[in-house]
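[Solved] Which block belongs to which protein?

Original post:
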Amino acid sequence: MNYNSAAREKTVRFGEEVVIAICILFLSIFTPAVAKENTIVVLGDSLTAGYGLEPGEAFPEQLAKMLKTRGIDINIINAGVSGDTTAGGLARLDWSVQNGTDAVIVELGANDALRGILPAQTTKNLETIIQKLENSEVQVLLVGMRSPPNMGQKYVDDFDAIYPKLAEKYDLLFYPFFLEGVAANPDLNQGDGIHPTAEGIMMIASQFLPTAINLIELLDKNDK
């Protein structure tokens, strides 16, 4: 056996291993960390679920596209369920908002108003949703809704006050009225006069965009 040859081979292998270890260490130090992609869940009803629209035309999808054109890649999950009330949203909260969710856009209450559910009950449901999300360290963006006028002025006043009061109480990011500029506009609503067309949703998403960007900036700030 040539001991000198064997020794040289071991020395070469050792040298290669040292070089590899140094390279790995160098890469771990100087390779920039990949930014975490935030996940936002839109917990809503038919207005966000995309009732009567084609795939890709619902609010969460359109909002994600608008953000992407501004260089913001974000995972937006559509957890809208047509016909859902605040009670329904609360009942499915735990499985609609999975672990790893960074923020939830809460858009619920339109069906409460249509059904004449007592504003006190709607308030309780929304407040419980907010508390559960905050206890899980999930950022909340509350979206306001307004009651139709046929419920009577007392009901309208009590219902419409729910959202700004909750936003102030919990110091939440707040979008006052989801259907701003679209409600009661026949050119931007489907035949039922309630659900926006794709064009109506595009207008909503466009108006909502600055608030969504504020939410993402807040998430980025909290990640640092």
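(Second protein starts here: sequence line, then its structure tokens.)
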Amino acid sequence: MIEAVKAAKKYGTIVSYDLNYRPSLWKEIGGKAKAQEVNKEIARYIDVMIGNEEDFTACLGFEIEGSDLKKLSIEGYKAMIDRVAQTYPNFKVIATTLREVKTATINDWSAIAWADGVVHKANDYPNLEIFDRVGGGDSFASGLIYGLMATGDAALAVNYGAAHGALAMTTPGDTSMARKNEVEALMKGAGARVQR
């Protein structure tokens, strides 16, 4: 992976990276310590860094103060992102999802993205009815990247990401079934249900 990101940067490619920490994948090769060693090296070559609270902690060693799985501290997230940006000045965008778990099937959902020193917050999706949580983060990442590529506007991009992630979690499996028009409708206030 490190060779791939180095080669990409050599040729001027914009590189995005989803931290996506999975303990079982690191268990036999050194756990969190090894994950941090590898990810800190990779991070030096990344332009768009994506991850949730646990990912930034496990992979890069950044803690978010004042948050737990039930109650988020938006200010804690913003402070963490500021520390990340100072540590990795090569990052052009830093994005993370915001999830407050109410029950296994009801979550509050949103996201924030830092770009050019400004934190942009996506629309809130309170009391989102979760059918299958798997794939929500990946769908957020792909929506964010689409928004950045299509518009160049981080505020709009984080909304594409949050809406796409929300829609993905209303369907089974980890592959999004949402269409662009459905994502944009949700961004404008439609319900978080994929239309079939």
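Accepted answer:
You had them paired correctly. Confirming on the second one: The mean pLDDT is 91.
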